[in-house]
Amino acid sequence: MPKKPLFYLSPNDTLSELSDTYFPPYITLAHTFNAPAGWGIYNRVLKQFQLQYVLNGSAQYTIEGKPYLTRKGDLIFHRPGERHSVTTIPGEPYVCLSLVFHFGQIAFPLDDLVSTTNYLGNFASHDIERKLTSLVVHYRQPGLVHQLHAQTLLMEILLIFNSLAGERSVQEATAVQRNNFSRLVLAKNYIIEHFAEEVKIKDLEKITGFSCDYLIVQFKLTFGMTPIQYQIHLRVEKAKELAVHEGLTPSEVAERVGYSDIHTFGKMFKKKTGTSLSQFCATLFTEDFGPEE
């Protein structure tokens, strides 16, 4: 009895069968397919991720009951457990590129890189199309170097998705942010002036006229962090400045940046910088030369 194809298996069941692959992402299928007339897949459920790219023609794709009429350049993405069907359209060709992959036992946060929708867009003549095609070429050749190329290309493709999603988000947010920017700057300036005090969101709500949730979202879109994260950032930078230029003790620094408890300050500083304040200072001054004679 022939073995079941790898892309049908649970992720962990594929690992022993993969050659020259030692770390994720694990690619279990990468090929181009020219569908015969009347071809179709019905209500299939995979345990891995799949990208399906239309190289030529068109097909009807359905994922969890939602239909997508895919044409040349369209890219579909579905996750483990999502029921899907693909059928050709009478009189039209369908040539696609299929890529199935997983991350083994690692709980990789793929939704942070790829849109939560199933239709990712049209990429005809885009760099993504070239990378997908090159990935298939490398995957189908034996040897470690080709497998590494295929895995690298897959991660590059996922990063491009993230970049494109970010560009769309910025474009959509620009008009709103333009109207809100002046009020957000007022909130930012308030945090700067009161960074060593307890800055409350309700104070920022009064300054901007925004609701709590809207304020946090818009502040992060504009400045890259939430108001509280920004305040902590200011405290860390001010702590560095005080320790280096004024020679204060950690306890004195903690008090100056708004912490009455040195242990709370120490935990915060190490979490944000990866080192203690004393260790940070030690990396800046390697020798004590003393006064010149």
Automatic annotation (TrEMBL):
Keywords: DNA-binding, Transcription, Transcription regulation. Transmembrane segments: none annotated. It comes from the Bacteria. Residues 185-283 form the HTH araC/xylS-type domain. The keyword Kinase does not apply. The keyword DNA-binding applies. One of its GO terms (molecular function) is DNA-binding transcription factor activity. This is AraC family transcriptional regulator.
